[in-house]
Design a protein that fits this description.
This protein is α+β, with helices and mostly antiparallel strands. Helices cover 34% and strands 25% of the residues. A five-stranded mixed sheet has the order 1-2-3-4-5, sandwiched between helices. A hairpin with a 2-residue loop joins strand 2 and strand 3. The longest helix has 15 residues. The protein starts with a strand and ends in an 8-residue tail after the last helix.
Amino acid sequence: MPLEAIAINRLDAPLIKKPARDNELAERLAALYDSDETQPSGAEVLRLVEQGFSRGQYLYVGMFNDKPIAAVACFDDGQTNAKRLQYLTVHPENRKRAIDAKFIKLVYDAEVKKGVREFVPADDAIHRIMSEYELLRVKD
């Protein structure tokens, strides 16, 4: 099964198909962020993401073989049509394998289909990926 980027707006979204424990998705996402020294703690990121959910924001989860292996927040400032991509993390076993770039491209494509024309990468890794793949401005 290929990598999928799925937008969620709640941490109990039914992404894990096998019988999942209560809060399993949230626990796995927190563990992903806790394993990434470039990001705040999992609890902090999930707190910020949940605040964003209440304002209509999304967290994209990269699913592979029924497991969350990547995540990135997609925030809207409410003033422009730009989307801010922030808090990118990838499972430790998948780092340095270009999963981050493929995942960002999937998120980008999903947002462009929704009509987004401008993206603001909020950290160096996302900016590097989007620059390399010329994803910072959508060409009409």
